[in-house]
Design goal:
- The chain is mainly alpha-helical.
- The protein is built from 10 helices and no strands.
- It has one domain.
- Helices cover 80% and strands 0% of the residues.
- The longest helix is centred in the middle third of the chain and has 28 residues.
- The mean pLDDT is 82.
- InterPro entries: TM_pro_TauE-like (IPR002781), TSUP (IPR052017).
- Belongs to the 4-toluene sulfonate uptake permease (TSUP) (TC 2.A.102) family.
């Protein structure tokens, strides 16, 4: 049975599902929001499994939209290091309690904001525009992406940063990210089931929230066109930072 939630908690979960859909349809900056909202409503460890089911639905939609634009050279380069990061995340989830996981999620969100702001400042200071990421940095972004996606389902900003800095065209970023997260999230399923994070109860909750996710996916691009990209990113960064601080200091 689906757990009993208050109306406010259902509203937060619905907003989280909308954000999942929007993040998969062209607005990846929305990615950290579902993580924070689910960790607010559910126990921190259980929230990671509940979010994963929704992410897989969003990944299927994203692949359907952008499947033809993936850069498979970059994907193959990332695979070994991402797997290492996922396995490290499994170890942490195995030994950590809810408080430790919640604080790890909060710290991860804050780290993602710092990374994004650092990258934006780097672009602004470089007269020639953004530089390509050196090939060897796949071994930095890969483990970080694998760890953050396993521990908090929050690798979107990390990997989007890598894809953008790699000078991929917009369509290639969306296609590469779509396939990357579908494959990585599918790889995480056995571990999440084995850790007791993804359950029949969480899947039933996902089923209830899928309509909101689909609405977010197909409405996301329309909203993005009406909002200044600069202000959109600023709002999301502030919300992500606020969520991270809240989860970090919450008793």
């Amino acid at each position: 049975m689906v757990p009993a939630f208050t109306p406010l908690e259902w509203l937060l979960l619905a907003i989280a599902a909308l954000a999942v859909g929007a993040s998969k349809s062209g607005m990846p900056a929305f990615g950290p929001i579902p993580v924070a909202l689910f960790a607010t409503v559910l126990p921190a460890k259980a929230s990671t499994g509940a979010v994963l089911g929704l992410l897989l639905v969003g990944d299927l939609i994203a692949v359907r939209m952008y499947h033809a634009h993936a850069d498979w050279t970059i994907l193959r380069r990332l695979v070994p290091s991402v797997i290492a990061g996922v396995l490290l995340g499994v170890v942490v989830l195995w030994f950590a309690d809810d408080t430790a996981v919640r604080r790890t999620i909060g710290a991860t969100l804050i780290l993602l904001v710092v990374l994004r702001v650092t990258f934006l400042l780097r672009e602004r200071r470089t007269a020639a525009g953004p530089r390509s990421v050196p090939r060897g940095l796949a071994y930095v972004f890969g483990p970080l992406g694998g760890f953050t996606t396993m521990i908090a389902n929050a690798a979107g900003p990390v990997m989007t940063l890598y894809f953008v800095a790699s000078r991929l065209p917009v369509q290639a970023i969306l296609g590469t990210a779509a396939w990357f997260f579908l494959l990585v999230n599918a790889f995480k399923v056995p571990f999440s089931v084995g850790l007791g994070l993804m359950t029949w109860q969480s899947l039933l909750l996902n089923l209830v929230l899928v309509p909101a996710l689909v609405l977010g996916a197909f409405g996301g691009r329309a909203v993005a066109r009406r909002l200044s990209p600069v202000w959109f990113e600023r709002i999301v960064l502030v919300l992500t930072l606020t969520s991270g601080v809240y989860l970090l200091v919450r008793a």
